[in-house]
C-alpha cells in the first residue's frame, strides 16, 4: 500500500462542472496554466513547508468519471447529455511543474503549476487546493514543533481529533515529513513506512483492579515496547510502584522502557518522577509527556530543562490550532498563449508562468528568492521542476524518508532568525522587473478590452 484510494471525480465544487460545460459549449479548450500559491504567511510563521504533491500527482493520474457519477450527472438535470458523454472520456493529459515536497517557500511563490487544456486544468482546482493547503499547513506547524523539541522524540498523536479520517492520515504523513519522529496512526506506517509509536490509555489502567497489575500485565504482553501511563491516579505513587515492579520483572528479562505523563504540571511532575526512577535504579527509563501540546508548550518545557525525553503532539498540530488555514489560491496565469492575471483589490496576482530562483550565501544559507517569468534566465537554484508530462509522472514517487531529509536540509539552510518561533524580519523575495513589466502590459491589454465593451474600465489596482 502506497497512497490514498482514487478520489471520486465528483469530489469537487459544483462550479467546476458548470464552468466546464460552458467551456465546452464555447470551444474553450486551448492550453491554460494555473499556479497554486499562498498570498501571505499566517501570523507567527516565518516560512512554510510544501507538502501534498504526491497525492496531487496520484489524483491527476487516476482522474476519471465513473459510470455511477455519469449516471448521477445525467439524472440531476443540470447538464446536457453531450457534455456528460465528453466527461466519460476525460483524462488528465497535462503537465505539472512543482517544488519538491519539503521545500521551504514564502508568500506569492508558486509551489505548483498545472499546464493543460483549460477544462482539465479548471476541473482539478478544488482537489489540488484541498490536498496542498492541508498538508502544507500541517507541515508548517509541525516543523515548528520539531524545532522546539531540539531533536527529542516527537510523536503525532492527532488522529482521534483530526477533522476526518483523511485529514488524520495525511497529518501523520505531513508531520513526519516535517521532522516528527513518527506517529500513533497505524495506517500511516502501512502506507508510507512512518515509524509507529504507542503507549496505553487510561482505560487500560482503570479496567484493572489496581495500577500495578495493569503495569505488569502490559509489560508481560509487550516486553520489548512498553510505555507506562502513570498519571491516572497519583503520578508519583505510580512511579514508585514501577520501581518495585521492575525488580520483579528483571529475572524474566523484561525491562520497562518509558513512562508517560498526560496531565498536570508536566515539568514539575517530570522532575519528581525522574528522581524516583533514578533512586530506584531506573535511570534508563525515559519520560514522555503529552496533553494539548504545541510548539510553544514544547519550547517552554525544553527551556525549563525539564527531564523530558519525548513529546506526543496531536490536536494543536494537525488542526494548526492557532491558524487553521492558509490564505492560498490556484489561479489562471495564462490561457491560449496570453498571460492573464486577477486584479481584484487585495487579491491581485502576478501573470504568466513563473519560476522561483533561490540564492545562497557563503555559508550555503538561503539569502533571497527571485520571482520571475519562466523564460527569464536568472542566477540561483530554480525551485519548480518538471514532475509530470502528458499526464504521466516523470519519476517514481520518492520515499517519504527522502522527502523528510530534504525538509530537514531546507530548514537547516534558513537564516537563524527565521527558524525561531517568534516573528522575524521577512525573508527577501524580489519580484523581477520583467514580471512587473508583464503585469503592466496585461493591465493595459485588459483596459483596452474593457474600453471596447459597454462598461467603463475600473482603475487598475496596485500590484500584489
Q: What's the SSE blueprint?
A:
Elements: H1 14-25, E1 31-40, E2 48-49, H2 53-62, H3 67-76, H4 81-88, E3 95-98, E4 104-105, E5 112-117, H5 118-123, H6 125-149, E6 153-156, H7 165-178, E7 182-183, H8 186-192, H9 202-206, H10 211-221, E8 227-229, H11 235-249, E9 258-261, H12 266-279, E10 286-290, H13 295-303, E11 310-313, H14 315-318, E12 327-335, E13 338-339, E14 354-360, E15 366-373, E16 381-382, E17 385-389, E18 392-393, H15 400-412, E19 429-431, H16 433-451
Parallel strand pairs: 6-7, 6-11, 8-9, 9-10, 10-11, 15-19
Antiparallel strand pairs: 1-5, 1-12, 2-4, 3-5, 3-17, 12-13, 14-15, 14-16, 17-18
Explain what the structure shows:
The chain is elongated, with a radius of gyration of 26 Å. Helix 2 (53-62) runs antiparallel to helix 6 (125-149) and helix 6 (125-149) packs parallel to helix 13. 39% of the residues lie in helices and 18% in strands. A 7-stranded antiparallel sheet has the order 13-12-1-5-3-17-18. Strands 7-6-11-10-9-8 form a 6-stranded parallel sheet. Strands 16-14-15-19 form a 4-stranded mixed sheet. By secondary structure, the chain is of the alpha/beta class.
Q: Distance between the terminal alpha carbons, to the nearest Å?
A: 43 Å
Q: Based on helices, strands and strand pairing, what is the structural class?
A: alpha/beta
Shape: elongated
For the record, what CATH class of the largest domain applies? Alpha Beta
What Rg, in angstroms, do the CA atoms define?
26 Å
Pfam families: NAPRTase, NAPRTase_C, NAPRTase_N
Enzyme class: ligase
Protein name: Nicotinate phosphoribosyltransferase
Domain Nicotinate/nicotinamide phosphoribosyltransferase: 154-334
Amino acid at each position: 500500500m502506497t497512497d490514498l484510494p482514487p478520489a471520486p471525480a465528483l469530489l469537487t465544487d459544483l462550479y467546476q462542472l458548470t464552468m466546464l460545460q460552458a467551456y465546452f459549449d464555447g470551444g474553450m479548450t486551448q492550453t491554460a496554466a494555473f499556479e497554486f500559491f499562498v498570498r501571505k504567511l499566517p501570523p507567527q510563521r516565518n516560512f512554510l513547508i510544501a507538502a501534498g504533491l504526491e497525492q496531487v500527482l496520484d489524483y491527476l493520474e487516476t482522474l476519471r468519471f465513473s459510470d455511477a457519477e455519469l449516471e448521477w450527472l445525467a439524472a440531476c438535470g443540470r447538464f446536457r447529455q453531450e457534455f456528460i458523454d465528453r466527461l466519460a472520456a476525460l483524462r488528465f493529459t497535462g503537465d505539472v511543474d512543482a517544488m519538491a515536497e519539503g521545500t521551504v517557500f514564502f508568500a506569492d511563490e508558486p509551489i505548483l503549476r498545472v499546464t493543460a487544456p483549460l477544462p482539465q486544468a479548471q476541473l482539478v482546482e478544488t482537489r489540488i487546493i484541498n490536498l496542498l493547503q492541508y498538508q502544507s499547513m500541517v507541515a508548517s506547524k509541525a516543523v515548528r514543533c520539531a524545532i522546539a523539541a531540539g531533536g527529542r522524540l516527537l510523536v503525532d498523536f492527532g488522529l482521534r481529533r483530526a477533522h476526518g479520517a483523511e485529514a488524520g492520515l495525511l497529518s501523520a504523513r505531513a508531520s513526519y515529513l516535517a521532522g516528527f519522529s513518527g506517529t500513533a496512526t497505524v495506517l500511516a506506517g502501512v502506507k508510507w513506512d512512518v515509524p509507529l509509536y504507542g503507549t496505553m490509555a487510561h482505560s487500560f489502567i482503570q479496567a484493572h483492579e489496581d495500577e500495578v497489575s495493569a503495569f505488569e500485565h502490559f509489560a508481560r504482553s509487550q516486553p520489548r515496547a512498553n510505555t507506562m501511563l502513570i498519571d491516572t491516579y497519583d503520578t508519583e505513587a505510580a512511579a514508585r510502584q514501577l520501581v518495585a515492579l521492575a525488580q520483579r520483572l528483571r529475572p524474566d528479562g523484561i525491562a520497562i522502557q518509558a513512562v508517560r505523563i498526560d496531565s498536570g504540571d508536566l515539568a514539575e511532575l517530570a522532575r519528581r518522577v525522574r528522581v524516583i526512577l533514578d533512586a530506584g535504579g531506573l535511570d534508563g527509563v525515559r519520560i514522555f509527556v503529552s496533553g494539548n501540546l504545541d510548539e510553544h508548550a514544547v519550547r517552554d518545557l525544553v527551556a525549563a530543562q525539564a527531564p523530558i525525553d519525548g513529546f506526543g503532539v496531536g490536536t494543536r498540530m494537525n488542526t494548526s490550532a492557532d491558524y487553521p488555514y492558509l490564505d492560498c489560491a490556484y489561479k489562471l496565469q495564462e490561457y491560449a498563449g496570453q498571460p492573464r492575471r486577477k486584479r481584484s483589490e487585495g487579491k491581485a496576482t502576478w501573470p504568466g508562468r513563473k519560476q522561483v530562483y533561490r540564492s545562497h550565501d557563503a555559508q550555503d544559507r538561503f539569502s533571497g528568492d527571485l520571482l520571475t517569468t519562466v523564460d527569464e534566465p536568472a542566477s540561483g537554484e530554480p525551485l519548480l521542476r518538471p514532475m509530470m508530462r502528458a499526464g504521466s509522472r516523470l519519476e517514481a514517487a520518492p520515499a517519504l524518508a527522502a522527502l523528510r531529509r530534504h525538509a530537514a536540509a531546507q530548514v537547516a539552510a534558513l537564516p537563524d532568525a527565521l527558524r525561531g518561533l517568534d516573528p522575524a524580519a521577512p525573508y527577501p523575495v524580489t519580484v523581477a522587473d520583467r514580471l512587473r513589466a508583464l503585469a503592466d502590459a496585461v493591465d493595459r491589454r485588459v483596459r483596452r478590452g474593457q474600453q471596447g465593451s459597454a462598461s467603463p474600465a475600473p482603475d487598475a489596482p496596485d500590484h500584489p
